Amino acid sequence: MKNYYRKIFIQSPAVFGVGLINLMLAFGASAQSAGSSPGPESVEELRAKVADLTRQLEAAQKELAATEAAENAALESAEEELADIQAAPSIGAVTFGGAIRANYTYGDYPATGGPSQGSDGGNFSLDTFRIDADLLYGNIVGRAEYRWYNGYNFLHTGWVGYNFEGGSQVQVGLNRVPFGAGPYGVSQSWFFDQSYYVGLADDMDIGVKYLFSVGDTELALAYYYSAQPNGLGYTEHASRYDADLVENDSGEGYKERNQVNLRVVQPLEWGDDLTTDLGISLQVGQLVNEGNVNDGDDGIAYASAIHAVNEWMNWKLALQLTYYNYDIGGQDLINRGFYDYYADIATEGWIPAASLSYYLETNDIRWLDYVLPYLEFSSILKTGETADGEDFRDSSLITIGAAWAHNGWYIYTEYAYSNGNSFVGGNPYTNFGANLDSTWQGRFNINFGYYF
User: d(Cα 199, Cα 186) in Å, to the nearest integer?
Assistant: First the structure.
């Protein structure tokens, strides 16, 4: 655009002059035909001026072309330099990256000064440091990711795969279980929705996953032998990323085995920029009793969900309704381990979840690429009861916030309000199990992340 106006500025005087002289010549010719003769010398002078202006115009055009070439070369050089700066380091077919994240927390807690899981209120703390490696060698692909948290660390991802003709792909190893509206459930937030805390969102297990399409229908079929392996931390079985069914430090609990997953998503177009990804997810697996719980009987785990991701212009509305059941012979609580922390959850329940977000580009703000405000709700509607016959209380989570992105920075600012999430409030008031002391508590959180 800048060169366009420069071109107009340079060309306009010459073009105007040429047009004026041609008009004068035409007028002179007309006058001569009417009997008014300007004389041969005057016509020659005008023609000389036209030729001189034409030469000036050609010179200006050459100068403009040279300037444009120089600017384009400078722009290409700057873009190449920026690409070199932003390019991740690589060795052969493997590209490396990573992230470092810090967290600020402040909220309503009992005398502990912080939530059951998370930094103390009002303090900064290390959230995550991670190293990534991505493999691309012809049709062979893969990914590995290792994470360090405060006091514990683990392998988050580790798989190799193959890209087939037609767009299908197979992954073998520690990969994300295909269940729900997206890789993080319906959520855009740092806290996720309640599906994650019962093991049904962003779950990494060891097995084989096949991604393929039939027409425009997207499918995922997977078999998982076991859950994510335990890492290094204070606990014997909970040093991991996922909310997996595990033994406690006394050796009592269940292990996940032989799980099968199916996910089907059908894209729909409604016109006027409105689309829907409508899908279903199914999961069934074996629960192996490792600690003589409930007389040593094994169990079965199954879950199903219907989900829809609706997009209209920059708006996104993700909806999901999930039913899950960890059937272990009538027991209403089962142990899970994640983030070096054990938590009992209700063995059966429904989880409605919704997330509304808006993608706002900020082209006029140099220090910000875009901002993503969101509002989310989810709840674990439980069916269990205590030994005294008192019904479990539901565990709900409301999150309002925004994600801010610029270059490698990604920052979450959000307020979470819950009556049943140990990462928001403190014990004994909020938990994923019976939750008899259910009390609404809030947590303001800022997560600063730099990805490289």
Answer: 14
Q: What are phi and psi of 435, to 5 degrees?
A: 60, 40
Pairing of the two strands 360-361 and 441-451: unpaired
Which DSSP string do the residues of 418-446 spell out, in sequence order? Answer: ESS-TTTS-TTT--SS--TT---EEEEEE
Taking a C-beta distance cutoff of 8 angstroms, is the pair 408, 69 a contact? no
In the three-class reduction of DSSP (H, G, I as helix; E, B as strand; rest coil), residue 85 is classed as helix
Identify which of 192, 300, 171 has the alpha carbon closest to the alpha carbon of residue 243.
192
Token output for 184: 């993080």
Distance CA 198, CA 323 (A): 11
Q: Which has the closest alpha carbon to 314: 267, 371, 269? A: 371
Roughly how many angstroms between the first and final C-alpha of the chain, as a whole number? Answer: 33
DSSP letters, 28-80, are HHHHHHTT----HHHHHHHHHHHHHHHHHHHHHHHHHHHHHHHHHHHHHHHHH
Rg (CA), the chain: 33
- Amino acid identity, residue 273? D
Report field, pTM of the whole predicted structure over 0.90 = no
User: What three-state secondary structure class fits 216?
Assistant: coil
**Please, which residues have CB within 8 angstroms of residue 362's CB and are 6 or more apart in sequence?**
368, 369, 370, 371
Q: Give me the helices (H) in 221-280, please.
A: none
**Cβ neighbours of residue 437 closer than 8 Å, sequence gap 6 or more:** 428, 429
Helix/strand/coil percentages in the chain, nearest 5: 20, 50, 30
- Quick check: 406 and 367 in contact, CB under 8 A? yes
Indicate the DSSP class of residue 179.
-
Cβ density class 96-122: b for 16+ within 10 Å, e for less = ebbbebbbbbbbbbeeeebbbbbbebe
Q: With contact defined as beta carbons under 8 Å apart, do 333 and 344 qualify?
A: yes
Report the SS3 class of residue 404.
strand
pLDDT, tens digit, for every residue of 383-413? 999 988 899 999 999 999 999 999 999 999 9
Cα–Cα distance measured from residue 111 to residue 425, given in angstroms and rounded to the nearest whole number: 11
Is the preceding omega at residue 428 within 30 degrees of 0, hence cis? yes
- Tell me: the pLDDT tens digits for 315-367? 999 999 999 999 998 889 999 999 999 999 999 999 999 999 999 999 999 99
